[in-house]
Amino acid sequence: MSARTSACRAGFALPAVAFLLLLTGCTGPAARDASGGRGPSAAAQRQGAAPSAAAAPAAPRPRATPAALGPEAVPYWVNPDGKAALAVAGHLAAGRTAEAALLRRISTRPQAEWIGPDRSEDAIRALTEAATRDGREALLVLYAIPDRDCGQHSAGGATDAAAYRDWVDGVARGIGTRRATVVLEPDAVMHVVDGCAEGGGRLRGERYELLRDAVRRLKRQPATTVYLDAGNAGWGTPADLRLPLQEAGIAEADGFAVNVSNFRTTEESTAYGRRISALVGGKPFVIDTSRNGNGPDTQGDPAESWCNPPGRALGAPPTRSTGDPLVAAHLWIKRPGESDGPCRGGPKAGEWFDAYAQELAGNAR
Question: Among the options 33, 81, 187, 254, which is catalytic?
Fold first, then answer.
């Protein structure tokens, strides 16, 4: 593995300016990023080029910190070298202070780290150690189930069941005894239910078995909380998910996640989650509020409403103080500003889409 490849996979360990110089290489056509560019999620927008990292001189950048509610309400780590923070640095270096100010609405909030099959045990260890040094908890999304995204914008995943189990084991070892919250495999259950990843009874059973095994392996870590993905309020009926979630191991998980990478309002998502909870033993749930400030796009083509939709906005900042005993947290699981896929002028899934990030931040209340 080259030094450049290592930096792209574990860039959080680099100083901000050094990583800024690698941003183009990490997000260029040859790179692969499992950071939430999967449907259903967003729709329409012109492409905005990220600031030129190579030409930008070193610029001072305030350290990203969570909101002022304190670690009990916002316990999650803010990666000081995330893509939003690097974009802020690039805008500042170019004198674009207004753009930088808007993007600080993203860069200073804790967001999930999406972990694909190319992230090694050592990378996970370095990430969780960085969070622990800051007195915070890592927020991770595991996204490597075989046949991930049914071959669409974030196609990939582990090559087979054995590779997936080995990878999950490495992730668990990388977390170790440090605090971590894990959102497990967005869309994995829903794609079985809707037939996208049907593959016959054998493959369907294998997927449920892999999810159950992943929950059990992760729960062996003493400070790891695990939430299974359970779709969004626009997907289908909660009743359709009761047995699939049970098959996938919800009884041994801490709860489930709703609205991952989607735009459904917090109110809709809460009602949806409460209905699911009533069917799976009263389990609590978390809501992805990263881009739901204006709700979903209802004007464009419904088939494309998930992919970089225009007019959307950042939602409520991450917090555990939700005012609802069943809602364990509002989280930014999808990283705002990263593309859903090469649609409506956006780059490929997971790459930074600066114009879209500016719009999300500018529309936020």
Answer: 187
For the stretch 46-70, pLDDT in tens is 223 333 333 333 334 444 444 445 6
CA distance 50 to 87: 7
Is 288 an annotated catalytic residue? no
Q: How far apart are alpha carbons 130 and 137 in whole angstroms?
A: 9
pTM of the model: 0.82
Q: How far is CA 59 from the centre of its chain?
A: 28
Please return the burial class of 152, using the count of CB atoms within 10 Å of its CB with bins 0-12, 13-18 and 19+: middle
DSSP structure class, residue 138: E
Q: Give the angle subtended at the CA of 227 by the CAs of 145 and 314, to the nearest 5°.
A: 95
> From its phi and psi, is residue 294 left (phi > 0), alpha (psi between -120 and 50) or beta?
alpha
Mean pLDDT over 336-340 rounds to: 97
CA distances from 196 to 96, 159, 188, 360 (A): 44, 18, 10, 30
Catalytic residue, from 149, 254, 288, 297: name it: 149
In contact, 77 and 136? CB cutoff 8 Å: yes
